[in-house]
Amino acid sequence: MRLIDGSIRRPVTVFMTTLGVVLFGLVAASRLSVDLLPDISYPSLTVRTDLPDAAPGDVEQFVTRPVEEGVGVVPGLVRLHSVSRPGQSEVTLEFATGTRMDLASLAVREKLDLVSLPREARRPAVLRFDPSLDPIMRLRLSGGGNLLGLRRIAEHTVKADLEGAPGVAAVKVVGGEEQEISVDVDAHRLSAVGLTLADVSTRLAEENINLAGGSLTEGQSEYLIRATNQFLSPEEIGRVILASRPEGVVRLADVASVGRGAKDRDVVARLDGREAVEISIYKEGDANTVAVARAVKRRIQRLPLPAAMKMVTVADQSRYIDSAIRDVTDAAWLGGLLAVLVLFAFLRQLGTTIIVALSIPVSVLATFIIMYRLGLSLNLMSLGGLALAVGNLVDASIVVLESIFKKREEGLDARRAAGEGTAIVAMAVTASTLTSVAVFFPLVFVEGLAGQLFRDQALTISFSHLVSLAVALTLVPTLYALGARGGHPAGAAAGAPATTPGPQGRWRRILGWATFAVLALPRLLTRGARSTGRRARPWVDRLLIPFDVGYGALVRVYPGLLRRALARRGRVLGLATALFVLTVVVGLVLPRNLFPSFTQGEFHFNVRLPEGAALKVTDAALDRLARVVSGDPRVKFVTTSAGQTDLAAFAGSAREANRGQVAVVLKDAGDRRGEEQVAARLREAMDQVPGLSYEFERPALLSFKNPVEVEIYAYDLDSLRTLAEAVAQRVTRVRGVEDVQSSMRLGDPEVQIAFDRDRLAAMDLDPATASRLVRSAIQGEAATQYSDLDRKLDVRVRASEAQRSVVAELANLDVGRTAGRAVSLGAVADVRVARGPAEIRRIAQQRAAVVSANLKGRDLSAVAQDIQAALDGMAVPPGAKVTLAGQNRELGESFGSLRFAILLAVFLVYLVMASQFESLLHPFVIMFTLPMALVGVVATLLLTGTTLSVMVLIGMVVMAGIVVNNGIVLIDYTKRLRARGLSKVDALIEAGQVRMRPILMTTLTTVLGLVPMAIGVGEGAALRAPLAITLIGGMMSSTLLTLVVLPVVYATLDRKP
């Protein structure tokens, strides 16, 4: 081939190109962004609409249903579901994979413009789910005295400084206490002087003013005119005159108490039992998580915090990313080292081993260049792809080198042997590489998260394999020819003195010495390696005696074994068929999960107390739970958050005082047993709290539905609640299920005010005005702002605490005046206490409830089967429906998509081989390596206890392109031998003997290169290990069976003698 001959003739060009690839690869590697996972697009939109003070039923009727009807016809919509909560509607639209979300968002906004909503409803907000919405770091600031000071330092010192860090999008602060000026009005005394709360708010806003009045010119001077009438102290606020009466003026202090106070708290955050302030850092969408976290940490070290205050990092994505990336990198290095050691065990020549081993770093660095140009990041999947490929990158070079050795044994010199030996196997190694790459094209058709997740991995494996092919066809023969050749590496002229005088002669001398250095380096390296190898050879031979004994026995036994197999073809094929059938039967009953579970050294429980529980009750309950495990030696720290979390506040969710979170961080991130035991202690403590429900979660790397979800459909809420309770009871009885939750819950106790329109009309009042006055009395209004040095404090006017904290007192609140007399709420309305639903869910525009649960000790497929069996025996009323959903539905969709990808990959592999062999029969023979590989996959999964998951199926896709390579090499050489005149049986035996060594070398380098990943040590290892285990099992069984079964299949199907 011209490429091979040209490379051997132009070694300087080859070396300079390689050097350039190495240099630019190092530069590209230093500039690649680092992240945990690839850039994943979730094709969903959420329409959030607020309807203040509305019950869930009203929100559903007046907001949710109109919005659903409006946006339900948007193109590309796959699924529509909603939740109506007190005062808020959320409608979620899920689109087909590949939908352009910018256009979908525009279409949704256009439909929303046509929807008619109540006047009180706020404008709908269209939100797009973005994984970067999660904070990259969470800090907790504790100590230092009062909570007001803690919050002030967090807001004005910590937040102000960290927001300036490169890549930081926002810093959110929750917890502690925020100061305001409280104006607690005695409603009875205010009514006695003929005023309302609205009058108080209006007067305060009018009195607190600082207004520019233009300018005045007098003579040579110009004066600015400014009215300075802002409040200077709370006492001055109390002296404000509200009204003048014949008996005197009415000041605010006469009817209200004025002073500094704290706002109503939404969140109580604690760290190891002490109240704290939580600070969450959000990065910009395209920022490097690790770089941003490092910049934040540098600024934290420089913060001028009081000595009594302590800042603790309770969550840090960069730590996990750093550790996970480091572990993958270590696995790749160790895998590459093991592959090189296998090469040396076979070759016993250090110089030759180095030549082949160069394929690994050159291919990886070249891949970094392509990744940089395509905008890919260094993440678990892209680096995992390189770690998977590292053992394969030497395969083509091994086959080329074996062919060169064969030519050297025939008496050719190094240069001719390098050229002819490489040319003979060039088509075979090209076909082998193309089959390895072709299997990734079907991933284009894998929909959903799996397709996006493995795109980076597919690209890195493909790029590295293609580069390794180029290295095998150019660099390897060039290095061999140069390293084994005699004479001066650069020829006679390279070292001869220059005869050209002047500057031109000096440049030629410099160029000559540079050329000499480049060409001499490989020879010096190989000579040095040979010299080192000769001195170490006795020691190495002793170490490798077990290997030599085993390999020698295999070499002696194999020809006879193959001859007997060829003589008993029917028996061999029958045994192989029986083994494959048994494999299929076992494979069908393998346990299945969507993705493997893995620990990150931290977990949390989302806790819900009975509806109506006050924030202080929730905080006390969470604090008691935290103390249960805070003294455990395996626990690093425990944090609690009662009420609205910072993420909920950032997303605009409503406050729920009865909800909270207990988060535990372990000292050892990989201690899975310790995590299970600590979580079990917490579960036991929570089970003893009446009315408390909880849900276990780990920090989510990916967005998944709950493992178990049962959807119940019915229009009537009572029927829906009854069905949901029945389903929850049945799900609870299924083995392997825990944390069972139902979305059908009674809401908070609510005071319902039913106005009598006739009585209101008689008093010349209306429901809207009366409702606003009730809200002003209870919730209060920020009438104006008080300047306190560099801060602005709200001045909140509302009824006194005694009058707004007792239900019976609400009837005495004034809601207006008529004929000079105050009108109480009880005179125009009935006040009663009742409970409604906490939320109303709708799926596909039907009312629905969801019962969810987590798994414990069993796989998803087995639990789903048991749940389905339990549901089949339920009596469902007419018009109602019960459906099993959750990850089980995603599992079916992902497995179906990946099964199609595997079949398409097999077809593409066949196309590539048929094109190479110009035959339909020989590729068909080689395809028999695939069922033989499946035997090893199933056996390995059983032995290691690995469940069948998306990762395993992706491994099968990759395996389809790799395991055929040995068959290609074997059948290709068999064809060449038959072309020389050997009989079919003799050609098969000769090909098996000659190609056994390269086949074993390529298999062992691949398998040992995957061992570090398969062992599953380090962060995120559970995500990588199943893929490596799949490939190891498939490679081992396919290789062993290929050496025996494949020749038998060839001999049976090829009718030529």
Automatic annotation (TrEMBL):
One GO CC annotation: plasma membrane
Species in which this protein is naturally found: Eiseniibacteriota bacterium
Record-given protein name: Efflux RND transporter permease subunit
Lineage: Bacteria, Candidatus Eiseniibacteriota
Pfam families membership: ACR_tran
Key words, A-Z: Membrane, Transmembrane, Transmembrane helix
Alphabetical list of InterPro entries matching this protein: AcrB_DN_DC_subdom, Acrflvin-R
SUPFAM superfamilies: Multidrug efflux transporter AcrB pore domain, PN1, PN2, PC1 and PC2 subdomains, Multidrug efflux transporter AcrB TolC docking domain, DN and DC subdomains, Multidrug efflux transporter AcrB transmembrane domain
One Gene Ontology term of the molecular function aspect: xenobiotic transmembrane transporter activity
Gene3D superfamilies per record: Multidrug efflux transporter AcrB pore domain, Multidrug efflux transporter AcrB pore domain like, Multidrug efflux transporter AcrB TolC docking domain, DN and DC subdomains, Multidrug efflux transporter AcrB transmembrane domain
